[in-house]
Amino acid sequence: MAIETPGQVVQSAKRFTGWYIAAAIAFIVLGVFAIMEPAVASLGVALLVGWLFVFGGIAHLITAFKGGGAKQVIWQVLIAVVYAVGGVYLLANPLMAVGTLTLLLASVLFIAGVFEIAAYFQIAGASGWLLANGIVTLLLGGLIWFQWPSSSIWAIGLLVGVNLLVTGFTRLMLGAAGRRVVNRVAA
Questions:
Q1: How many domains does the chain have?
Q2: Would 1 be classed as within a structural domain?
Q3: Per the domain annotation, does 148 fall within a domain?
Q4: Are 105 and 82 in contact (CB under 8 A)?
Q5: Is the bond into 149 cis (omega within 30 degrees of 0)?
Q6: What is the value of pTM for the model shown?
Q7: Burial class (CB in 10 A: 0-12, 13-18, 19+), 144
Q8: Cα–Cα distances in Å, from 13 out to 10, 24, 102?
Q9: pLDDT per residue over 159-176, tens digit each?
Q10: Cβ contact 39:149 at 8 Å
Q11: Residues 68-127: pLDDT tens digits?
Q12: 187: exposed, middle or buried (C-beta count within 10 Å: 0-12, 13-18, 19+)?
């Protein structure tokens, strides 16, 4: 392994922060697109989940034959079949997949909101932000749930878009701060 000079380290750090900032901008662009077209983004998420299930099935099938006895092989093959069938079903019925994922999302948000509110009352000296987050999460889960199935059109895509946008801005700020540090060290 070659020892890098300080100048090479600075150049590597500049290159890294450059790529980090470029990735942040890509997140922001994708987030804006997902917010502008939440139905398309929701469909993309459903297709991604379908493909992940298919690949998960393939991975379990490969794992099944790596040894461990007949019992392990049988269980791994069964799990592989469940994943593969589920993935193919999601890919063949993407609109139903969006609806199902939206209902799952609403349930998770609703339950998480209830737990956060309960945690606020159980933790001595808990921040009011925990309670506020719990209330907003509970309301968001309820909003999606009570507007289902029509919420399927916007919910997943909008939330993914907002997440991508916030992630992008966060990464952009971190990358810019890293670049400033590298420039100070180089000076």
A1: 1
A2: no
A3: yes
A4: no
A5: yes
A6: 0.70
A7: buried
A8: 5, 16, 41
A9: 888 888 888 888 888 888
A10: no
A11: 778 788 888 999 999 999 999 999 999 899 988 889 888 988 998 899 889 888 887 777
A12: exposed
